[in-house]
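Morning!

This is the sequence you dropped in the shared folder:
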Amino acid sequence: MKYMILGIATFFLLSGCTVKYENIYSKLPAFQEGYKDGCESGEEAASNSFSQKKIDIKRYNNDSVYKEGWDEGYYDCYSDRELEIWMRHPAIFGY
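The structure's back. Tokens below.
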């Protein structure tokens, strides 16, 4: 059962990442910049609870395209990093 869960998680991690990260290059530059900042923040937050977010707060509040990119990047990379940690150390999560 443990190996089946790991296999499914690996499949979704690998298949989702390729599409997700390729799609940002078709977006506006403000979205790409927001995504990059949000992604860095999400990866750090998933692996270190004391991390500081990389965010241009003035731009986040005034540029809806940057905000959308930042939010999407943060949540995408946070969940990817969290899954990566889980796959490396399943015992932490009770598996």
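Headline: Residues 37 and 55 are 6 Å apart (CA to CA).

More detail when I'm at my desk.
O.
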